[in-house]
Design brief:
Conserved hypothetical protein from pyrococcus furiosus pfu- 392566-001, ParB domain, flat, alpha+beta, 15 helices, four-stranded mixed sheet, 6 strands, ParB/Sulfiredoxin_sf
Length: about 350
């Protein structure tokens, strides 16, 4: 299990080719005693995977240095690599120090575990999102979703049921670091009214008039051209209720739940991300049945717009048969979902 040499590693590229995190800073590579390190506050609810540790110890692949929070000497990312080094009897190993708060160090740990190595489970990512929401309530749903590997809609639902996750002010910090209003629903409706009264106005003119970005105005205009509501369903159902909750002390709307799990029903966006995560799990994609399941799921993960097109394309005399077959397929998938739920009980 060799580690990359100090002069060849660039986990995050900076001005010399490495990309720094948006918060905090990563140091150049250093080699330190393993005994000086504290174990990570891991986003993995089940802790470390002993099998993965053994696999790393027996691997000939060159591994990147682990990430350590300098202020506490606690591992941020790389506990499996650390355990593998201990298993091999090593006393020192290369690290990069993270310069930032402990809260930001946890965000970095989640981001890195989502992007590489042993995948985090859905439960791991949901729990991590809840923790980030408590430590960074001013961050937008999209910013936290990007860090935790979830959809913004899922993060929004988690925010509603998480104590201390509501922003104190009516604004949020986006992925680009810019501060924006907590909800653009009202501004979107104002934009739709302005467009109706001034159809020749440019995107920038409408944006300046109602206080939103030209990109948002473009989305509003496109929605109006398609005959849709200017406010996306996610904002109507989630962000407006969250904005109202901010102004009601001690009261938060109860999240909608499924009968079995209490989790919000996944959207098409959620399903696509879940399929990608499942496809990256070696225990699924490296087995014949796992690959077969992934192929079936990829075939049936049809976006809503495509489903409408398919329904319109079926001749009227065939709709009863097609509908019956669709119900049969839905029942089969629901039965599989119940079987999977049963394995978690």
């Amino acid at each position: 299990m060799p580690f990359a040499p100090a002069d060849s590693v660039s986990l995050h590229m900076d001005s010399e080719g490495a990309q720094e995190p948006q918060y905090g800073r990563l140091s150049p590579v250093d080699v330190i005693p393993i005994a000086s390190l504290l174990p990570a506050t891991s986003p993995r609810l089940g802790g470390e995977d002993a099998g993965h540790v053994r696999a790393l110890a027996g691997s000939d692949a060159t591994l990147p240095p682990i990430i350590v929070h300098r202020g506490t000497m606690r591992v941020v990312d790389g506990m499996h690599r650390l355990r593998a080094a201990v298993l091999l009897g090593r006393e020192r190993l290369p690290v990069r120090f993270f310069e930032g708060s402990e809260q930001d160090a946890f965000v970095l740990a989640v981001e890195l575990n989502v992007k590489h190595g042993l995948p985090l489970s859905t439960a791991d990512r949901a729990a991590a999102a809840a923790r980030i929401l408590r430590s960074h309530p001013q961050w937008s749903d999209r910013a936290i979703a990007a860090a935790a590997g979830l959809s913004a809609r899922t993060v929004c639902a988690i925010r509603q049921r998480t104590e201390g996750a509501q922003p104190q002010a009516g604004s949020r910090v986006g992925r680009d670091g810019r501060v924006r209003p907590l909800s653009t629903a009202a501004a979107r409706r104002q934009a739709s009214e302005f467009i109706a009264e001034h159809p020749a106005a440019s995107l920038r003119e409408v944006a300046a008039a109602v206080g939103i970005s030209p990109g948002t105005v473009r989305d509003v205009r496109n929605r109006l051209l398609r005959g849709e509501d200017p406010v996306p369903p996610g904002q109507r159902e989630c962000r407006e209720s969250r904005a109202a909750a901010v102004h009601q002390e001690g009261r938060r709307p109860e999240p909608r739940a499924t009968a079995r799990t209490g989790a919000a029903q996944p959207t098409s966006e959620d399903s696509g991300e879940l399929l990608q995560m499942l496809s990256r799990d070696p225990s699924v994609r490296l087995t014949e049945n796992g690959r077969y399941l992934l192929r079936l799921m990829a075939t049936h993960a049809v976006p809503a717009a495509r489903r409408r097109q398919l329904a319109e394309s079926v001749p009227s005399h065939c709709t009863p048969m097609a509908a019956a077959l669709a119900r049969h397929c839905a029942a089969a998938w629901l039965d599989l979902a119940h079987s999977l739920d049963g394995k978690q009980d």
